[in-house]
Design brief:
491 residues, 6-stranded mixed β-sheet, 28% helix
């Protein structure tokens, strides 16, 4: 292997938690940024279109049900074993063996079979056409490929032997609560990193991360909530540093639970909450106008999303009228947020203050990340923060997830009077490829979600980054929120 002249260079960054055991087919505590670093998929979203990753090209049958992928030549995993169509078939079998974990993805329910036609040709057969097929094959998980030799009895649902992928990086060493060390994959066919070692220090506290960066311990910080907006703006004035932002990603929003067992089942109370929160102050004083204001659940620039009605504006008088019509009896509503997320904490306090002004009591529940997402899933909240997932998930994959008890949406929606109609529209969308019919049904769905009064969008979030210009010449943001292209760094 030919080494770059800068191959001895080492770069240090930080993350709140360890990368996990990095099973490509499972979820938390595996960190998506690291799953992308180690594992490849058939295709990749480059921000505008889908391009081949493991596949060099593909064909779609006239009926939209059969995808035939033609693989690149001489692909191997980081241990040197072949990455061919037979290995991909084994990965699909392992993923589908654990199908119930992946029901939030529309494609999971549509795969009739996935098989190798020969070593260089892979065929994916669907039961019905699915317009988001390439979108969901490109996601950080679960449709990424691990070496069959790293599976346990040809399966991954109960763990893996080792994280052996074909991406630009390999995990060399991990120490719980201290660091993860990544090194270039010597067998990677794409652009080789110009560094020999990437250390991801584990620093849960955002203030500790900033102190480490300013002291020179860290060379780069990137990722959702890796640094506060205050520090981002402050450090942008220092000529030693370069600050960067991604394109707008998912929509950061509040979800209000309409479950019949919660006080917020009353739509008048939900409408009162929506009109009591001063989003403009949140955008200006907390998000510091770095993020683009959101007035819809999905960014209207996305396909099919231009016809959404806007959420209610700040109107305390109207909110008070709704509250008087409600069954609210001064009980404290639980607002759940992630404890170590300073943005969520500050916005939660602002919401508490706004709602208190019209007589709605809020109890703030600071929760560790793993329990936060459990509470989303099981509906143990009155109000909770959430985000749509940005490209290439939105809107298709996000609405598909509304059908399964995997995120806040299912729990919040399940007792709505319009729930059956919402489910029917989503199922129609997931089984349709005609753009005109899709647009008609999306418009109907957006109107029903708007009428439910359970969503309050704040912003179309961006990923923040900062790096030391004395150590790094340039860094490129990925198309997805958790895609960190450290291999494309220039020095």
């Amino acid at each position: 292997m030919l080494l770059s002249p800068l191959f001895g260079r080492e770069i240090t960054s930080a993350w709140a938690v360890n990368a996990g055991n990095l099973n490509p087919h499972l979820y938390s505590p595996n960190q998506m940024y690291a799953q992308i670093m180690l594992y490849q998929s058939l295709v990749r979203f480059d921000g505008e279109k889908f391009v081949g990753e493991v596949a060099k090209s593909w064909e779609v049958s006239k009926d939209g049900k059969t995808y035939t992928f033609f693989l690149k030549d001489n692909l191997v995993f980081s241990d040197g074993s072949p990455l061919d169509a037979y290995a991909i078939e084994m990965n699909f079998k392992a993923i589908l063996e654990n199908k119930t974990r992946h029901l939030w993805l529309g494609i999971t329910q549509k795969i009739a079979y996935a098989k190798a036609l020969d070593s260089k040709t892979f065929e994916l057969k669907l039961t019905t056409p699915y317009t988001a097929t390439l979108n969901e094959l490109s996601l950080p998980r679960p449709f990424r490929f691990i070496a069959p030799s790293a599976m346990i009895n040809n399966s991954t649902k109960n763990g893996i032997k080792a994280p052996i992928g074909s991406g630009a990086w390999v995990l060399k060493e991990s120490k719980l609560g201290t660091y993860d060390i990544f090194a270039p994959n010597p067998h990677f066919q794409g652009k080789k990193p110009e560094i020999s070692k990437l250390t991801m220090k584990i620093l849960p506290d955002p203030n500790s991360r900033i102190l480490a960066f300013e002291s020179g311990v860290l060379d780069i910080l990137v990722g959702k909530d890796s640094l506060s907006r205050e520090n981002f703006l402050r450090l942008s004035k220092n000529p030693k540093y370069q600050t960067i932002t991604s394109n707008p990603q998912g929509t950061f929003h509040l979800v209000i639970n309409a479950n019949n067992q919660r006080p917020t089942h009353d739509i008048n109370l939900r409408q009162a909450i929506l009109e009591s929160i001063n989003r403009q102050v949140i955008l200006e004083k907390i998000l510091l106008q770095i993020d683009k204001p959101a007035y819809n659940l999905f960014n209207p620039q996305l396909e099919f999303c231009s016809t959404q009605p806007q959420t209610p504006t700040f109107n305390p008088k109207s909110a008070q009228d709704h509250l008087l019509k409600s069954t609210y009896r001064q009980e404290a509503l639980n607002l759940v947020y992630i404890a170590n997320n300073p943005v969520q904490k500050t916005i939660a306090e602002a919401i508490q203050n706004d709602l208190n002004k019209i007589g709605i009591k809020i109890k703030l529940n600071a929760t560790e990340p793993i329990y936060f997402f459990q509470r989303q899933k099981n509906g143990n909240f009155d109000l909770i923060f959430n985000e749509t997932w940005g490209n290439p998930y939105d809107p298709h994959s996000f609405i598909a997830s509304m059908l399964a008890p995997s995120h806040a949406d299912f729990a919040a929606q399940k007792d709505l009077n319009s729930r059956k109609e919402i489910e029917a529209l989503i199922n129609t969308i997931l089984n349709q490829t005609n753009p005109k019919i899709l647009q008609t049904n999306y418009t109907k769905l957006f109107n029903l979600l708007h009428q439910s009064a359970i969503y309050l969008p704040f912003s179309y979030g961006v990923v923040l980054g900062i790096y030391n210009k004395e150590r790094i010449k340039s860094y490129q943001m990925g198309a997805m929120e958790t895609e960190f292209l450290f291999e494309n760094m220039e020095f």
